[in-house]
Design a protein that fits this description.
Blueprint: H1 25-33, E1 45-46, H2 83-97, E2 110-113, H3 116-126, E3 131-136, H4 142-147, E4 154-159, H5 170-180, E5 184-188, H6 201-213, E6 216-220, E7 253-258, E8 271-274, H7 277-290, H8 296-305, H9 308-336, E9 349-353, H10 364-373, E10 376-377, E11 379-380, E12 401-405, H11 410-424
Parallel strand pairs: 1-10, 3-4, 3-5, 5-6, 6-7
Antiparallel strand pairs: 2-8, 7-8, 9-12, 11-12
Length: 425
């Protein structure tokens, strides 16, 4: 694909460094910046945004704007996070997902990292020389994470089908595990970019199948609280594989989440993995060479966010406010001619087909370029065609698909949709 050959320095100036392309949203923001975009610019609409709105929000508790530090917070912290935060995360999961269950998470089941990407990076570094399955389309950053370990890992794609609403059913995932000898599966669930999610019995089937086969599940659950009913109402609660884990020490399930999305604190860079203690110890050991451990300051602040009253008020408000934005975006895009294999049931993205739009807007890269002229950012679908090492040849099947974000505040989402409508007219 040509889109990832974004701005780069002349090859002779890199010396021994490899050329690292901009990926997904980073490419989009870089191209927009050439036309004057910057984060927070009042005259731009970032419908490609990969973070939720971060300001005061209807129904949400007040934003945390200070943290009181202790003397020890100025020192290096443990590689896997402070005891206090790990205990708070374990308690958070037990309260939401493990009530009445024999097996409970403890701090030994938690490994804290400086953000979700870093938690995923540690997980990739800790995987052995195995076949690893992943779904398509999925989170763009997985490509480079896999690519760094191609000498050891063998990534095996499992392509979601439009007729399934771009959701890979649990039965099919387990069939792929058996047919292709997959020792691990890495999936975002809820899924970025499609807004689909395995949940309920379907998710229970996947966890049970992984348990029976000894297949390690690495589930990126960063959008766990952005959940909606099929008719666009706020979901009853979060989506997670945590309720379906039988034994927290024996089930080979690693769940990755953090404060970035569901709690709307992306700048704090607080993420975590939760799973069997032996796996968490291994992830922490990878940190000794990758990052050196998370900031004590951010971890101190995170303790307030995970207090039950604060956490529940924030995540409930997220579902109410973002359900309204989801419904508006779907309605407006459908009126413009954008079509959906399945309407988003999670995240703050909609995954739409441009096929029915008049040329040249039926091509995602052209749509993206023309939308920039109207000061609107979107993300072309082919960025989510994760292809480590570019081993798969040929054009991407997502050239007519686009990810639209309703992450910004409602007035900005409305303005962006107004501009797209004007562009198409």
């Amino acid at each position: 694909m040509t889109t990832r050959a974004a701005h780069s320095a002349p090859s002779n100036s890199l010396g021994a460094l490899r050329e690292v392309p901009f990926m997904g949203v980073i490419f989009v923001v870089h191209e927009a910046s050439k036309l004057g975009f910057r984060n927070g610019h009042p005259d731009w609409c970032n419908l490609g945004q990969g973070q939720p709105e971060v300001g005061p929000m209807e129904g949400a508790p007040a934003r945390i704007d200070h943290v009181d530090l202790l003397p020890e917070d100025h020192a290096y912290g443990p590689l896997g996070g402070t005891d206090e935060l790990r205990e708070a995360i374990a308690a958070h999961y037990n309260r939401l997902f493990r009530e009445g269950k024999r097996s409970q998470f403890t701090k030994a089941n938690v490994c804290v990292a400086q953000g979700g990407r870093l938690a995923l990076t540690r997980a990739m570094a800790a995987l052995g020389a195995v076949n690893v399955g992943y779904q398509l389309p999925d989170y763009t950053a997985y490509e480079d994470m896999f690519e760094l370990h191609l000498a050891r890992l063998h990534p095996v794609p499992i392509r979601a089908r439009p007729e399934d609403g771009f959701r890979v059913p649990a039965k099919r995932l387990l069939e792929e595990v058996d047919a292709k000898g997959l020792a691990a599966l890495v999936l975002s669930n809820p899924c970025n970019p499609t807004g689909n999610a395995l949940q309920g019995k379907e998710l229970e089937t996947l966890v049970a199948g992984a348990r029976a086969r000894g297949t390690t599940l690495v589930l990126d659950e960063f959008y766990s609280h952005f959940v909606y009913t099929p008719d666009g109402k706020p979901g009853a609660g979060p989506v997670s594989a945590a309720p379906f884990v039988d034994d927290v020490e024996r089930d080979p399930v690693i769940l990755i989440d953090g404060l970035t999305k569901s709690f709307r604190y992306p700048g704090w860079r607080v993420g975590w993995a939760i799973g069997p203690s032996a796996m968490m110890e291994t992830l922490a050991r990878t940190a000794s060479s990758i990052d050196g451990g998370p900031s004590r300051i951010a971890q101190r602040a995170a303790l307030k966010v995970l207090e039950p009253g604060y956490a529940d008020q924030e995540t409930s408000a997220v579902r109410v406010v973002f359900a309204r934005k989801r419904n508006l975006m779907i309605e407006r895009l459908e009126r413009m001619g954008v079509r959906f294999a399945k309407k988003s049931e999670s995240t703050f993205y909609v995954w739409g087909s441009l096929e029915a739009l008049p040329a040249p807007f039926d091509d995602a890269m052209t749509f993206f370029r023309r939308a920039l002229e109207h000061k609107v950012l979107t993300v072309p679908g082919e960025f989510f065609d994760v292809n480590p090492g570019k081993r798969r040849r040929g054009p991407s099947p997502y050239r007519q698909w686009m990810r639209f974000s309703f992450g910004p505040p409602m007035p900005n989402v409305e303005l962006g949709l107004d501009r797209l409508e004007a562009m198409l007219k």
